[in-house]
Design a protein that fits this description.
By secondary structure, the chain is of the alpha/beta class. It contains 19 helices and 11 strands. Helix 11 packs parallel to helix 14. The chain is elongated, with a radius of gyration of 24 Å. Bound molecules: iron/sulfur cluster.
């Protein structure tokens, strides 16, 4: 996969990332002028404290989350937060003070946020305050380029639901029924819903400081790499892009994670629509760990891994004995999976172009 759309998408992402500081300032400026508040947050701890401090009441603030991962401190807060489901807000069963969700992209030139398939979209005008969490690498400099990025997603995501894409540029109003006035017909008034965009660092500036790993920030979260990863298929631990970014954070995750969760099969390289060079990024990470780590076992394993591309050329049996055993001996589930593969278990999934070419 390396056609002109993919190269163009790669360039769109490259241009944004290499000029990220200026783009973020321009976005902040534009979106503030549109009447939306902006808050810069570094990590989950700061995010939790921002949300807690912002809550209007001492007890039972009603918060509706539409997030893939709710920080545990917000999910279980004693009597500070009462979690309200999206369905209850949407169906007017419960009201909520806050709605907190993530945004897929920000558009720098228009100061807008783009949302795909958000479950909570029908709740925006039923709460007092909406917070969109936007990773600082997920911006596009020119709104005219969003169409190219969207074209790289699976068709189902974009067209499966007629209303799948929403672009929010301004605060909106909530309609309030004034039925308490006991008039024959209800009267209605509107109330402004305040909107905040959290520009969320989430370890991204740490990756920016590594010129090589910066390319991992091109990711548009299409999810294609995880669907073709043979290791993720078995253990669901790290998607390929999470594995690449893992060591960049340099935090509590172990160096060994990178060795234990890849076979360097290259499937992710083949499907990534923005052309993130997974093999080269993983190899550099491993070489770096090899250079810095003097423990013999990892040193030996690292040498094997960095020779992986050569091993690709060998037949399946040799790979199994010299590579898979050494790699996954401590992880019986993965070892059994790979040992049970009779044929070439690398490059399991061919790309769509290859499939079409076969027809
Ligand atoms: S294939 Fe993976 S790394 Fe590439 S854009 Fe999609 S999710 Fe990101």
């Amino acid at each position: 996969m390396n056609n002109s759309i993919n190269r163009r998408a790669n360039f769109i992402r490259y241009s944004f990332i290499e000029n990220m500081d200026n783009n973020l300032l321009a976005f902040e400026n534009k979106i503030s002028n549109n009447g939306i508040d902006v808050k810069w947050i570094s990590n989950e701890e700061e995010l939790v404290s921002f949300i807690k401090q912002d809550l209007p009441k001492a007890h039972f603030n009603k918060v509706c989350f539409d997030l893939p991962h709710i920080p545990s401190e917000l999910a279980d807060t004693g009597n500070l937060i009462k979690n309200i489901s999206v369905e209850d807000v949407e169906n007017n069963i419960e009201s909520a003070d806050y709605l907190i969700t993530n945004a897929n992209f920000g558009l720098v030139d228009t100061g807008s946020v783009v949302l795909f398939n958000h479950k909570c979209k029908n709740c925006f005008n039923k709460v007092d305050h909406v917070i969109f969490i936007l990773d600082i690498n997920n911006l596009i400099a020119k709104s005219s380029d969003i169409g190219i990025i969207l074209s790289l997603y699976e068709r189902d995501l974009i067209h499966g639901n007629q209303q799948a894409i929403d672009i929010i540029s301004q605060p909106f109003n909530k309609i309030i029924s004034n039925s308490y006035q006991f008039e024959q017909e209800n009267t209605y008034s509107t109330q402004k819903v305040s909107v905040t965009v959290v520009l969320y660092d989430n370890g991204i500036t740490a990756i920016m400081n590594n010129p090589k790993l910066r390319e991992s920030l091109y990711c548009i979260n299409c999810g294609k790499c995880k669907t073709v990863c043979p290791v993720y298929k078995v253990n669901h631990k790290y998607t390929p892009i999470e594995l690449v970014k893992n060591n960049a954070f340099g935090t509590n995750r172990k160096n060994s994670d990178i060795f234990e969760n890849t076979t360097l099969c290259g499937n992710c390289d083949k499907v990534c629509p923005v052309l993130i060079p997974f093999m080269s990024l993983l190899n550099s990470e491993m070489e770096l760990i090899n250079t810095n780590d003097h423990e013999d076992s990892w040193h030996d394993l690292g040498k094997i891994m960095t020779k992986r591309l050569k091993l690709n050329k060998l037949n399946g049996k040799i790979r199994r004995y010299f590579f898979v055993r050494k790699l996954f001996n401590n992880n019986k589930k993965l070892l059994n999976y790979f040992m049970s593969q009779q044929d070439d278990f690398y490059n399991l999934t061919s790309t769509k172009e290859e499939e079409n070419a076969k027809l």
